[in-house]
Amino acid sequence: MEDNPDHLELTLLTLEEQGVDAEIAVALDGAQALDFLLGRGAHAGRDTQRQPTFILLDMKLPKLSGLDVLRSVRANPLTARVPVVILTSSSEQSDIVACYSAGANSFIRKPVDFGEFTKKLDRLQAYWLGVNEAAPA
Q1: Among 57, 102, 46, which residue's Cα sits nearest to residue 75?
Q2: How many whole angstroms separate alpha carbon 40 and alpha carbon 62?
Q3: Bridge partners of residue 57, in order along the sequence
Q4: Which residues of 33-62 are buried (b: 16+ CB within 10 A; e: fewer)?
Q5: Are strands 106-109 and 55-57 parallel, antiparallel or unpaired?
Q6: Is the pLDDT of residue 3 over 70?
Q7: CATH class for domain 26-130?
Q8: CA-based, 20 to 30 A from 129: which of 17, 22, 59, 81?
Q9: SS in 3 state form for 37-92?
Q10: What is the domain partition of the chain in residue ranges?
Q11: Closest to 27 in 3D by CA, of 82, 64, 81
C-alpha cells in the first residue's frame, strides 16, 4: 500500500525488473487496503481466504494511516497471520516501536538513493517470496 505515485512506480518497476511474477495488488490509501484485504466496498465478493503472501505497507497513507491498517490487519482473523512489512521514509524510533508493538514483521526505511532502494527491494522480495515459509491459510 503506497500513496506516493513516484514511490509506487519505482517499486513496481523494480519488482518487474527483478522478475517477480507474483500477483501485486495496489491500494492508494488505508481504506482501500482494508477493503481489498477484507473483501469490502469495491472488493466485495473477493475470495478473502486467498490473502497476500505478505503486505508491503507505507506508514503515511491517506484516510487510514499504515499503523491503523496494521492494527486492523492484526485484529482480523482473515489477515492476522499475513506478514506485514513496513516500508517507509520515517526514521522515528517511536514509529519503529509502534509498528513492532502493533505486530509488524519487519520495518524497512526507504533509501533516498535509487540504487540502494533497488537493492533493498531485491532483498525484500528474495526473503518474503523465496525464503520465508508462509503460514497456511
Answers
A1: 102
A2: 18
A3: 86
A4: bbbbbbbeeebeeeeeeebbebbbbbbebe
A5: unpaired
A6: no
A7: alpha beta
A8: 59
A9: HHCCHHHCCCCCCCCCCCEEECCCCCCCCHHHHHHHHHHCCCCCCCCEEEEECCCC
A10: 26-130
A11: 64
Which residue, chain included where needed, has cell 520465508? 132
Looking at the chain, the whole-number percentage of residues with pLDDT higher than 70 is 90
Tens digit of pLDDT for each residue in 64-73? Answer: 999 999 999 9
For 19-55, the pLDDT digits (tens) are 666 677 888 899 999 999 999 999 999 999 999 888 9
Query: Which residue has cell 517511536?
Result: 94
Residue 2 clears pLDDT 60, i.e. is over it: no
Residue found by looking up cell 478473502 in the block: 48
Indicate the residue type of 52. P
Question: Which grid coordinates are listed for 67?
Answer: 499503523
Buried/exposed code over 87-122 (b: 16+ C-beta within 10 A; e: otherwise)? bbebeeeebbebbeebebebbeebeeeeeebbebbe
